[in-house]
Task: structure prediction
Amino acid sequence: MTGTGRYDAEALRVFAERALVLAGARPDDARLTADGLVAADLRGVHTHGVVRLGVYVARLRRRSFDPEATLTTVRDGGATVLLDAGGGLGIPAFVRAMDLAVARARQHGIAAVGVRNSNHCGMLAFGALRAVASGAIGVALTNADAHVAPWGARARFLGTNPLAVAVPAGEEPPVVLDMATSVVPHSRVQAAAARGEPLPPGWALDREGRPTTDPIAALAGALLPLGGPKGSGLALVVDILAGVLTGAGTGPEIAPLYDALDRAQGVGHLCVAVAVEAFVPRAEFAARMDVLIRAVRALPPAEGVDRVYLPGEIEHLRALEYAAAGIPLPPHVVAEVEKVAAALGMAPPQPRG
Result:
C-alpha cells in the first residue's frame, strides 16, 4: 500500500470492517464503524477516517472498547431518551442514537437522545447526515478528552468538543456544519508532528502556556479555543449538554483516546432530530432552502476567493469526486493502515492502478 495513489472507498471499507472483526468487534458494529471512518475520508476529513483504525483496534484488543457492549435504555420519556453505550465502540452508539432520535421525531416533531459511557464517535457529520436522509434536521454534539485550554487558562481542561448540524434541501446538497470548538482538531496537530511540520501561529500553547508553533510542544501543552472566549464558551456548553446532562464524563474525567488504552473513555453524545414537517410542509422547506443556498452561493466573492461555498459543500463535492476517482489518502494515513494490516496479518488495500 506504500506510495501515492487513490484508494477505492469500498475496498477501504471492507478492510476496515474485517480489521475490526478480527480485533473482536461484532459484525454489525464493525460495519457501522467502518462506514463512519470511510465516510470521513470520502469527505476529505482524514483526521477522522481510517487513520483512527489503529487506535480502535488496539482498544478493542485491550477491551477498553468493549466488543461485547450493548446499547441499553436508561430512561425513556418518549421525545427524550437516555442510552448507555456500555463502554463499546462510539460510532455505532452515536449512529443508533441519531436513528432513534429521527424515529422519535416522526412521532413528536422533535426528539433528543443522549448517550453516556461511550467512546470516540468519529466524524459527527456522519450521524447528522443520517437525519437528513430521512428528511429531518440533525444536530449532534459530543465531548472529548481534554486537549483545550479554556479562554484565559494555560492548562488543558476541555475537549475539542465538536458539534454538527445537517439540514436537508431540495435539489441542492444539504447544508452541513461540522466543527470543532477548538481552532483545529487534536489530530491535525498529531498529523503535523508525524510530518515534522510546524503549526500556524494561534493554534496552541506549550506546557508553560506560551504560544507555540512546535507540534511536539503543542501536544505536551494545549490547543486554543476557536475564536477565543466564544469558542471556549461553546466547548463548555457542549461538555454540559453531552456530558453533564447525560451523566457521561466531562473535561479531564474523559480518558485520552491515544493514552490510557486500558481504560474506557466515558464520552457522552447528544443527538437531536427535528422533523421538518412538524413546522412546515417538507416540499416548501426544501424549495426555500434551495433559494437560500443559491442566493448565498451567488454572492460576489471576496478578493482572492473563487466563489462562495455553503457549509459542507466542499466536502460534498469532494465525496462525489472521491467516490468516482478514489480517495487520495495522505502518506501518514497509508502508513497507519499498513501498521494495522501487519498487526492483524492482513493484506492492506492497494491503490488503484
User: Anything to note?
Assistant: The mean pLDDT is 96. The chain has eleven helices and ten strands. The beta strands are 72-76, 80-84, 110-118, 136-142, 163-167, 175-179, 204-205, 211-212, 222-223, 267-275. The radius of gyration is 20 Å.
